[in-house]
Each structure stands twice: as structure tokens, then as C-alpha cells.
């Protein structure tokens, strides 16, 4: 009998296509040891570039190529892109027992220091937005502009409880790290504005689970439990010094739009917000042209 690793995988085929969008945009995959415990995998230009640096940080649900393929083709002509896999996603790994989003932020900062990137802007979606916020908070001397996408850093305990009730799940891990086809289907339908078919075959759902959720599953669950977001009754948000753009899908059931408006008031004085209509939790994938135009306007036009 053939092993699962040798079985035909539609998900693996599609991932190869996504990687091709990165390479065709002039990016190449690399790995670097940032210390004795931690190795980070990332994409960056094949050739040196004098374009302004921009870091793209993904959320849960897949490593970098799964979440930024529709951005790199547009943004790579205007920026020097650095697209890392966060720890325990893709080939990024650490022996450290730390699991907080702050540790992720420190690790990303070390990566950019080793690459001699003095100043850069950072764009993070969902969990990646948590990391982007802490990068900006910790290193205002290095982080220029910040874009936070559907990322409720201000989530409170009651918000997490309401989310679980809405999704009809008993634990938050079932949403961000589903372990069954039924849980995955719930997640897919929540994060997308467009309605998906009533029926998706289990073999395809299992393929997604095996390729995107089960790799480093133990450590990813530890990341969810280790995050500080949604664990307290009061959101402790320190204002950022940088110019910040918040982008939010109007129909996000995971992090409702009201959390975006609240975050705008908490995060500082130099904050603008763009609400994307007919979009849910992943506007960069659902309406990429509009999303890319919003990013370009903030990063390029506002500096002219």
C-alpha cells in the first residue's frame, strides 16, 4: 500500500503554483540561523534592490506563499520584499520554549538585522498583525510604517467567548487549527465572504489538514495558547509612534469590524482605517486588487 506521503495531493500541486508566483516576481527562498536555537525560512529578492523594504507577515492557516501570492506580483515592483515564514510554519523552527507573539516579533527583528535591513515597513494579517504590532512597539527606530489587516490585537476574553459561541465550537483552537474536515469547513466558510459549495469532498479537506494544519501541529497549538491576545478582560494596547494603516473586511465574523474601529482609537494618533466592502477575514485574497491599491496608496502616495 502506498504511504500518504506518496499519494497524489492537489494541495501540494497548488502550493507549487503559488511558489512559482513568488519566483516569477523575483523572489527566492532562503533560510538563515538567527541564533543557536532558531532557523527562519524567508523569501527575498534574488538580486540586491534599492527599493524601500517591506515585510509581509502571514497569519494562521498556512505559511507565507499561501497568504501573499496575490500581493508579491504587484508589490515586488515597488518594494524590496521580505516574506518570512513565522516560527513553526513552513521551514521556520526553533528549539526555544517561548511561544508568544512577542517572541515571534523579536525573531523577525533579528532576521532583518542579520540581513542588514536598517529600516522597513511591515504588513501583517490576523496573527501576523499581532507580530507586526510588537515589531513596531519594540523597534520604533527600525520600523517605519505599519499596516495591520483584520488583526484584533485588542481582543478581550469576552470577545473570544462570543466567537466560540458564534462558530459553535468549544475551544478556539478548533477554528485556527482545525483537526477534522467538519472543523475545517467551518473555518473556510467563516474566513471567506463568498459562499463556498455546500459540499467539499473529505479527501480534499483531509489533504488541506495534512499539508497546512498537521505540520508542527503541537507547536502551533502552543502558539495559540501562548498568545496574549484575548486572554484578559481589558485590552492593554500601547500606542505606536509610527504612521499606521488598519485594513478590515466589513463582514469578518472572526474579528468583527467594531474591533477595528476600537483598535484605531487605541493604537495612536497617526492612524487611518480602510474598510473593505464585501470582504471577510482575508481581504488580501478575496479582493486583491483593491487591497493592493490601498497598500500602495498608504506606503507610496502618502510619502510624496
SSE topology:
Elements: H1 10-24, E1 27-33, E2 38-45, E3 53-57, H2 64-75, E4 80-84, E5 93-94, H3 101-114, E6 120-125, H4 127-138, E7 143-149, H5 157-167, H6 173-176, H7 181-191, H8 202-213, H9 217-226, E8 243-249, H10 257-267, E9 271-276, H11 283-286, H12 288-299
Parallel strand pairs: 3-4, 3-6, 6-7, 7-8, 8-9
Antiparallel strand pairs: 1-2, 2-4, 2-5
Helix pairs in contact: 1-2, 2-12, 3-4
Your description of this structure?
Strands 1, 2, 3, 4, 5, 6, 7, 8 and 9 form a nine-stranded mixed β-sheet that branches. It is built from twelve helices and nine strands. Strand 3, helix 2 and strand 4 (80-84) form a beta-alpha-beta unit. It has one domain: Rossmann fold. The protein is 42% helix and 17% strand.
CATH architecture: 3-Layer(aba) Sandwich
**Biggest β-sheet, characterized?**
9 strands, mixed
Tell me the distance between the termini. 62 Å
Number of helices: 12
| Helix and strand run | HEEEHEEHEHEHHHHHEHEHH
Tertiary shape: globular
Task: Tag the structure with descriptive keywords.
alpha/beta; Rossmann fold; nine-stranded mixed sheet; 304 residues; single chain; 12 helices
Describe the structure concisely.
The chain has 304 residues and is α/β, with parallel strands linked by helices.
Amino acid at each position: 500500500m502506498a504511504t500518504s506521503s506518496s499519494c497524489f495531493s492537489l494541495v501540494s500541486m497548488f502550493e507549487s503554483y503559488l511558489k512559482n508566483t513568488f519566483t516569477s516576481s523575483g523572489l527566492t527562498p532562503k533560510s538563515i540561523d538567527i541564533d543557536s536555537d532558531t532557523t527562519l525560512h524567508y523569501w527575498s529578492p534574488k538580486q540586491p534592490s534599492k527599493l524601500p523594504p517591506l515585510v509581509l507577515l502571514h497569519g494562521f492557516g498556512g505559511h507565507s506563499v499561501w497568504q501573499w501570492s496575490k500581493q508579491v506580483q504587484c508589490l515586488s515592483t515597488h518594494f524590496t520584499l521580505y516574506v518570512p515564514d513565522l516560527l513553526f510554519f513552513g521551514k521556520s523552527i526553533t528549539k526555544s520554549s517561548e511561544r508568544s507573539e512577542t517572541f515571534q516579533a523579536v525573531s523577525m527583528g533579528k532576521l532583518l538585522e542579520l540581513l542588514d535591513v536598517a529600516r522597513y515597513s511591515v504588513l501583517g494579517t490576523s496573527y501576523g498583525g499581532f507580530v507586526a504590532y510588537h515589531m513596531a512597539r519594540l523597534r520604533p527606530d527600525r520600523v517605519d510604517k505599519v499596516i495591520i489587516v483584520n488583526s484584533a490585537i485588542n481582543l478581550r476574553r469576552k470577545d473570544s467567548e462570543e466567537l466560540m459561541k458564534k462558530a459553535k465550537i468549544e475551544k478556539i483552537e478548533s477554528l485556527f487549527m482545525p483537526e477534522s474536515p467538519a472543523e475545517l469547513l467551518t473555518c473556510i466558510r467563516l474566513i471567506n465572504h463568498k459562499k463556498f459549495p455546500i459540499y467539499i469532498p473529505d479527501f480534499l479537506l483531509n489533504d488541506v489538514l495534512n499539508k497546512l494544519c498537521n505540520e508542527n501541529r503541537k507547536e502551533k497549538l502552543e502558539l495559540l495558547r501562548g498568545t496574549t491576545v484575548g486572554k484578559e478582560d481589558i485590552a492593554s494596547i500601547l500606542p505606536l509612534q509610527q504612521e499606521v494603516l488598519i485594513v478590515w473586511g466589513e463582514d469578518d465574523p472572526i474579528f468583527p469590524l467594531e474591533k477595528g474601529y476600537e483598535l484605531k482609537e487605541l493604537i495612536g494618533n497617526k492612524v487611518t482605517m480602510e474598510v473593505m466592502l464585501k470582504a471577510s477575514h482575508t481581504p488580501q485574497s478575496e479582493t486583491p486588487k483593491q487591497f493592493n491599491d490601498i497598500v500602495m496608496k498608504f506606503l507610496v502616495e502618502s510619502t510624496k
